[in-house]
Amino acid sequence: MTDCTSLAPPPALTRAGLRRLWLAAAVLGLAALCAAALRLGVRPVGWSAVWTALTAFDAGNADHIVVRHMRLPRLGGALLAGAALGLAGALMQGLTRNPLADPGLLGINGGAALGVALCVLVLGITDPAEFVWMALGGALASSVLVFLLGGGSRAGTLRLVLAGAAVSALFLALTRGLLLVSRQTLEVYRFWVLGGFDGIVPATLAALAPFLAAGAGLAALAAPGLNALLLGEDSATGLGVRTGLARLAAGAAIVLLCGASVAMAGPIAFAGLIVPHLARWTAGPDMRRVMLFSAVFGAQLLTAAELLGRLPLFGGTMQAGVMTALIGGPVLIWLVRRNGVRSL
Amino acid sequence: MLRAVTAAALLLPPAALPAAAAETFPVELQHRYGTATVPDRPERIVSVSFIGHDFLLALGLTPIALRKWYGGEPSGVWPWGHDALGQARPVVMQGELDAEQIAALKPDLIIGQWSGMTGRDYALLSRIAPTIAPRAEFGDYGTPWQAMLRTLGTATGTSVRAEDIITRIEGRIAAVRAAHPEWQGASVALAWAGHTAAYTSRDIRSQLLESLGFRVPEAINGPGPVTRTHVLIPDEDPSAIDTDVLIWLDSGGSAARLARMPLRSTMRAYREGREIHADLLLAGALSHSSPLSLEYALDRLVPLLEAAMDGDPATPVPGMAEAGLLPEGF
Known about the structure:
heterodimer; A: mainly alpha; 13 helices; 0% strand; globular; B: alpha/beta; three-stranded parallel β-sheet
């Protein structure tokens, strides 16, 4: 008989220590993914060329152009959108206490999709760098509508989610109607709806960064209140937490984070759903830690998806949104099989 | 001799034509889903092909309904077809095929060689009226314009006119080809900007360029099914489309994306001024590749090809400056 106790973590390693180890490993993994994302792709670029592209850029060198003007903005987009979606998913699941909650639930993706379709059909703009504002506008408009329908500042969780589902369904139906009318809109939309970072330019990242920063700030503000809310509405109120304010901050953070990421990269499925589960599994129930882990795991997931989609294995042209589902699906199944999905 | 006979036949009204074999009905036409039997000269033709109306108009026929493809024309017919369309305003169909709407029009012929119709679509449509699908060997969107026109000529009793059009346009292409020996064997790529995609030799757009003597390189054609009409070009490696002439097809708004394309400045086609910016109309004309649009496309494309093929950036290709796409320093 072998000694089963030897498989348990050594007693010196406390839960907190284990969590720090996890976080350190996750950050190191993210750094390795970032380096790989700059190094790998359809065009072979060596480490030295990656380094000189970043430190001594030569505008006439094709390798340097690929690293600096193509891989770097895409990596930036994947990191930002991934962290934003992970964070938003954690907030969404914490706010609704529903393990199936997903950022798409609040009508944000539907609004952004309608914005893009209108932009192409009415304004004739087919350039992703230009319709980013219509996508963001649509996302913000639809989420305000969901918020109002959901009962305004006294919004109950269930009512909010129902309003979100209704607005999503309405906006997606309108979008489909527009797509039927215009074949040109369909051509642009069918790439956008897969989600990805192909057409991303640094100016778009810079323009959307303030929205993401504001969203992250509000999320941090909302975290203690959400922790209390996990104990239940009455207990939270009993603890002196202003639950309405915490909800409002969390809701605004979700809208900003999802709105900016959908405007940047299209509606990327799975990241917001699966990442918070991984985060809770490693970080425990505290929302502050769950949010931090979610941001790191989200950035990892999208960076990996973006990188895999660009490898010659997939023709070098697979959209990151497709790869997210391909990676996310098996991970979710693994989590469920390991009973890693914790109730909220 | 043959040409003289054809010309004489064209001068006569159709009723006075001798009963040539091709002009008699019923006619039978083979296609990928079976055989279409047209019992009599059709009067009410519905075109579910995205470019089919152009072919009918060239044959002097006006469909009662057409399928709008893209572009801003409310009639669905692009400028090269306006004269032939005249005051007629066929029903404009958009989006998915609507068998109910087509049935209500009571057609006696449905044409769809460039429609992407599925076997299920065909089963529905062929119960409404004789329906012409593409032939199996051409795939959904690969039927050469000559084959398409010949089939339609047979189906509508206008074979003589179809042959005359083919003779005229092929003659014009042969003359352009003969006048440009330097084009023979030169490489060409037709590509969309943004999510860069290039057309293979199987596509109708590439076929026009190949008929002028150019060839689509193996790097684009590659291995793969013969029905594949286009391939995606990875952004990180555009070498496959760095050809002797690179034609950028603009669906409207692509110029801005092209101007931003990171690796474009490293391409020989860019440095030597071998790029052509086909604006919405020229790209549309190439995409339709119909008897009407080919004439328009040749009018505009030949001077552009001449300017691009000189390989001298000091003589800019017309249209590149307007689109903001000239190489740096010009």
